[in-house]
Amino acid sequence: MRKVWWEKMLDRVTIEAVLAEALDLGGDFAEVFVEDRFNTHFQMIGGRLEKGLRGNDFGIGIRVYFGQTSVYTYSNDPSRDTLIRLLRDAVYQKAASKATAPRLEAPTLFSNHHRIDGKRQGSDREKVDLLRRAAEVAGAYSPEVRQTQINYIDQSQRVLIANTDGGFVEDNRMRTRLSISVTAEHEGGLQTGMTNRGAHQDFSFYKTVDVDHLASEASRIAVTMAHAGYAPSGKMPVIIGNGFGGVLFHEASGHGLEATSVAKGISVYAGRLGERVASPLVTAIDDGMIPNAWGSQNCDDEGKPSQRNVLIEKGILKGYLVDRLNGRIMGMEPTGSARRQSYRYAPTSRMTNTYLAAGEDRVEEIIADTDRGLFAKYLGGGSVNTATGEFNFAVMEGYLIEKGRITRPVRGATLIGRGSEVLMRVDRVANDLDHAQGMCGSISGSIPVNVGQPTLRVSEITVGGRSE
Amino acid sequence: MLKGFFEQLKAAAMEAGFESVEIFYQGGRAFSTKIFRTEIERYQVSEDAGISIRGVYDGKVGYFYSERIAPELIGTALEAMKNNALLVESNGETIARTRQIPVAEKAHLPLPDHEEVVETLRGMERQLLAMRDEIVDVPHNLYAEHEAETVIMNSHGLALSQKTCLNYLVFGVLAKRDVRSKTAVRVATARGGLEIPDALAGELTKEAVELLDAQPVVSGVYDVVLRHDVAADLLDAFAGIFSGEALEKGLTPLKGRMGERIGAERLTIIDDPMVDSAPIHRTFDDEGIETTAKRVVNQGRLQQFLHNTRTASVLGMARTGNGYRSSIKSVLGISPTNLFIEPGTLSLEDLMTDVGEGLLIIDVQALHSGLNPVSGDFSLPVQGYRIKGGRPSGTVDQITMSGNVIDLFGSLIGVADDLHFNVPNGMGSVGSPSLSVKGLSISGK
Fold first, then answer.
1. Across chain A, what does the average pLDDT equal?
2. Helix residue ranges per DSSP H, B103-185
3. Of A328, A396, B354, B415, which one has the fewest beta carbons inside 10 Å?
4. Are A192 and B91 inside 8 Å of each other by CB?
């Protein structure tokens, strides 16, 4: 019988033996995660293809639960001897065997809910043409453009997940992303503008992407910011643009709603279900099923189907993002939110595609109703301390608002605040919901996520510009 | 075994028309554990191995990496590398010829017994919780160790290998009073051993508790003392400004400034692969080129960029042995080995006395998003103390510190004697003593 992909490296009997050993050592649950991933990366700088890299990641991660704690081990070596040896090293406290491991039959392949065609991965020529088109458009935007860097990545991942509850599933994921970074110069100063698009999809994704617009937008941001003065300092109203503005919620609240910190009672959101945590204009959703979205996958990295989770509804905290182990601690069902960068990480609850629901205002009205403040059109990244709620995010393209009108461009500001306060201060929400792609880092590694929101206004945030 | 694999690869590569070929192997074992509320919350052991293969075909370089090292993949690898080499446009990269050098490995203490680690962490948790009433939890109580071997073999006859060993501890406490909560974190690196500075527990808990009363200051321009870990974080985030690749692409604020004064005279920045106080040491870089100690900035003047063989050749500059990759999964880039600001003779207290009125910064965030190594601009959330009458007086938070790193270099007032290295990020480590800086923009009230 023809061997499936994982059987070429390790067989069903080895996986059964590992699970059985885990239980023999006193674990009450064990999981084996096998991953085989092919990656492609091209980089074009200044219109020249400088880097071409292809590679294969492969490894096995084994997790064993002992009540509310766990041990983890991983290796690239799929041999039974190595895996058993590492497992014995990882279980520091042997206990009495509690259960019998299941026999494994054939794994169930998760149905694909996303339009992905494995045969349309794109030829190298097509990928390079894509890069070249982006580089040409970005470079031609203005004589002030000094440098363009275009990155293309795609990956094709196959995972096999087996556990002692009898779960035995396979899933395939395919992702692709184009990132454009432009540097412009004006009067000796350099500034950068960046755009990107990515999806859980094959190469045909790029038929839906306006690459010319993506490229010229990156250049437009760089050139505008090269001409901009510094952002102001101090507390003021801030209107945050749609799409990547979703970084605000991701940092201010998203991480704090992951069971990763809620289970330990360390998040500021722990123990607050049913309470008001945001203004009534805020409804926040995390949905791992959005078709072909960058953060989507058919099942999470513990083999549970992805699902749509309402986190906050009209300002009231409705739910958390829960993985298996933390769910055990919290007494809650997992929400299909367990994710990991690779077999090298134990999974934990993470976000997928997170967004704030659209409101009813029009963007022009919100600006006209703001006497003095900052319009943060595009955000950069950010970070958060979930124990204290203190978070930050960077403004990539900003404008002053004076007397209800957008006046001059300003640059170089990080916005800071406390998550709970900031969400209470959302006082206007527009109707222009959009989503953007990013990478999110945490204890289970760096993973692809969508962030999204409509344009909204926060009545007061500290803007970290320059004091005169 | 690796040698056998390489010989097979080399033979197949030559036959397939490659001019030269190289394997870069990294493999090792790691262990980490985390204690939380006396329980072993996390306990992880692992082994890993992988190779990156470079091949020169038609004068250009193609890459392939794999975490499966088996002769069966040689065909796939060579085909992928050939495709990549044909696609990329020549940029001067090649597999450099270099001499076989004697490898010096700095001794390290034996790694601690895992049970001893667990008991030490449990003991720290008890100690930290007992120090002050407001300390309610120890959310970070972690030990990690990593032993690795790097091997480079190429068809010019080079075969080099080096072992590295790194371990470190992370402690973080949570202080609470009424609705306010604050954390404070310390990282301690070692080369083996399990030494924790005696003063650490006291300093950490004092900081977290004092931050509970923190308030923002009025927005304005302040003289600032950057504690050594904060200064090291900043230098680390901006280390790319000294990269030969950034210079080549025009993506550094230092372009065109070679030989010029870019900072105060008391600023000297050194890259020294064998400096004793750094956590790792390398005699050769990831191309097998001998690493060198050099002054990147000497008494305020820009003297040197950091290069791999490609950028050195393209820019007509001398090789510096700074060709590194973050892992087998990335292409060859540039990184410092051990980059640091040369310490002075003052103490941290002296810096504050000299400043008189200002801020002492002990925590900085958003280093991955709030700064731009191309422009040198930064806007970063910070926390710390007010300095009044030359001494710390009251804590500050919810403020940002903004400026440009080149302006910061030029505004350096004092350099302390307390050189501190960060935990290496996979490509080298960065360190700094505490620094005092004139006139930084602070946003707050």
1. 94
2. 114-131
3. B354
4. no
The pLDDT assigned to A96 comes to 75
| Nearest alpha-carbon partner for B104 in B319, B364, B282 | B282
Sheet strand arrangement including A445-453: A316-317, A308-313, A284-287, A353-356, A445-453, A434-442
Q: What is the dihedral of CA B378, B379, B383, B385, to 10 degrees?
A: 70
Q: Smallest CA–CA separation between B191 and chain A, in Å?
A: 23
- C-alpha–C-alpha distance, residues B94 and A45, integer Å: 18
In whole angstroms, what separates CA A369 from the centre of its chain?
A: 33
Asked if residue B203 lies in contact with residue B362, where contact means CB atoms within 8 angstroms, the answer is no
Q: Find the closest chain B residue to A344 by CA distance.
A: B46
Beta strands in A67-167 (DSSP E): 69-75, 108-109, 145-163
Q: How far is CA A102 from CA A16, A61, A69, B8, in A?
A: 7, 19, 22, 42
**Interfacial A residues in 377-396 facing B (CB < 8 Å):** 380-383, 385, 387-390, 392-394
pLDDT score at A7? 85
B150: enclosing H helix or E strand: strand B135-154
Please give the structure tokens belonging to residue A193. Answer: 């503008």
| 8 Å CB contact of B369 and A380 | yes
**Burial (CB count within 10 angstroms: exposed 0-12, middle 13-18, buried 19+), residue B345:** exposed
Encoding tokens for residue B166? Answer: 């790194």
Nearest to B112 by CA among B73, B72, B147: B147
Strands A456-464 and A434-442: unpaired
ipTM of the complex as predicted: 0.91
